[in-house]
């Protein structure tokens, strides 16, 4: 089977001459259709830059980014597949939702990129109501503004907005990092269920090892712009082979420390 | 006993409402002890810290309680006496190191200023001390770093500088409000190690405020779990984490993804924080609790020893036993 996403020798530079910084260096990996692929790294490791390349916000400086066998970037111009096919959920629902729009407008906005017929079909009242209930909100919430909601509820709105176009691939860029743990658990469970129901493929970007462990089948570890290790989450957590991955795992404060040691043996 | 908070209630008044952010909180810290306060947003953990420091906003009213620091009630001190206590006796470290540092002053000068103030040294001696104290927080090439501005340093380095500022006096009690939340895990690990080392070496007690049970497990001797302005469980860290007595503590632990067993679905806590404008009559957690029994909604439980025959340290406020 051909992979859904293919990155080959991808570089990203910022600045010129002496000031040039390589944010991403020679990154190669593939994401299969139907899997959740985790991208882990600390701040500045380049993981969000890769997410931006896939959604069309940043062109790569070198290398190939392919979606369903087609190149997403030709030079500086982004060739999106079908509109709404790739969607994204950002970390901070405080800043990613327009404070002057009602929830209904926010959720329906991505449909404006779609052809008229499809827009009418997907923006139907019934479908919208089913979706808002599915992400755990109520119909009456549709007429409210973002500030009336808690962080967890706002992230549910952002998820509904991503799903309204019926995407095949969703980038989740630190979707629960701004949330309390009990709320994080709700949102992670919801994301897992939605993936099952809708046959989604996820790229899950996070700095949180245990969240990646919970969500992902395969993963890549990034450090200073490079992918230092890829493999199944099982493998990487049991037997991390790169020293950086080992340091990451050893730094993790965990109340499950004892259990983890047992799991390693 | 270094610090003893008894029956502290704090209320915030807004234009329309009165919100009780802390409700009869009691907590003590011994000399040299590291105590964690853990809770989610809105649990009142930061308000507790700000009350001790006398840094509450103007719209906050202390409704009841005492905060005894070595026998003196902090809540009765005037501005000047409080100022003398802060920094010298009680140091503080906040989440975002950039906001705690002067942006246009070199790191060494900032440190020297504080050291000169607390220890009556000349400027030159104070600067030499400043460089030494940077070395103590394991900053390599302290002479060079002392000449830098905060923006030239990484987040982890900045937090080291803030810690050495807070430890300059040195204080008897260090209050840390989410000191590592803005940092990467590898850096967090080093900062936690540093805090422990300083606490042991100087005998400084630490009150650590965090949302992260992992950080508590790593650093704290004892822990208090807060929910909606109340302490619902307290005890030795290992005891509380291994045998949590309160359904909220259990739920918090269950909500964490388990590295060893990722297939297990996470236990989310249903519902939302209660409306603090009017506290429910019974248990504060009853509305979201999975194991409610009849008294829960009517009578407020008090903190009681979990196993009275095994000492009084591990306490929980819950009717379900």
What does this protein structure show overall?
The complex is a heterodimer of chains A (265) and B (321). Helices cover 37% and strands 25% of the residues of chain A. Chain A is built from eleven helices and twelve strands. Chain A has helices at residues 47-55, 93-96, 103-108, 116-122, 125-134, 151-163, 181-198, 209-215, 233-238, 243-251, 257-264, and strands at 5-14, 21-31, 36-40, 62-67, 70-71, 73-74, 77-78, 86-89, 169-173, 201-206, 218-223, 226-232. In chain A, a hairpin with a 2-residue loop joins strand 4 (62-67) and strand 5. The two termini of chain A are 34 Å apart. Mean pLDDT of chain A is 91; it is low at 258-265. Chain B folds into two domains: 3-89 and 169-316, 3-Layer(aba) Sandwich (Rossmann fold); 97-168, no CATH class. Chain B is 32% helix and 22% strand. Chain B has helices at 45-53, 79-85, 97-100, 107-119, 123-136, 142-146, 155-166, 185-202, 213-219, 237-242, 247-254, and strands at 3-13, 18-29, 34-38, 60-69, 72-73, 90-93, 173-177, 205-210, 222-227, 230-236, 304-305, 315-316. In chain B, strand 4 (60-69) and strand 5 form a beta hairpin. Chain B is globular, with a radius of gyration of 21 Å. The mean pLDDT of chain B is 92. The A-B interface holds A 42-43, 150-151, 180-186, 188-189, 192, 207, 209-211, 213-214, 233, 237, 247-248, 250-257, 259-260, 262-263 and B 40-41, 155, 184-186, 188-189, 192, 211-218, 241, 251-262, 265-269, 272.
Q: Could you provide a short overview of the structure?
A:
The complex is a heterodimer of chains A (265) and B (321). Chain A has 265 residues and is of the alpha/beta class. Chain A contains eleven helices and twelve strands.
Write the SSE topology.
The complex is a heterodimer of chains A (265) and B (321).
Chain A: E1 5-14, E2 21-31, E3 36-40, H1 47-55, E4 62-67, E5 70-71, E6 73-74, E7 77-78, E8 86-89, H2 93-96, H3 103-108, H4 116-122, H5 125-134, H6 151-163, E9 169-173, H7 181-198, E10 201-206, H8 209-215, E11 218-223, E12 226-232, H9 233-238, H10 243-251, H11 257-264
Parallel strand pairs in A: 3-10, 3-11, 8-9, 9-10
Antiparallel strand pairs in A: 1-2, 1-4, 4-5, 6-7, 11-12
Chain B: E1 3-13, E2 18-29, E3 34-38, H1 45-53, E4 60-69, E5 72-73, H2 79-85, E6 90-93, H3 97-100, H4 107-119, H5 123-136, H6 142-146, H7 155-166, E7 173-177, H8 185-202, E8 205-210, H9 213-219, E9 222-227, E10 230-236, H10 237-242, H11 247-254, E11 304-305, E12 315-316
Parallel strand pairs in B: 3-8, 3-9, 6-7, 7-8
Antiparallel strand pairs in B: 1-2, 1-4, 4-5, 9-10, 10-12, 11-12
Helix pairs in contact in B: 4-5, 7-8
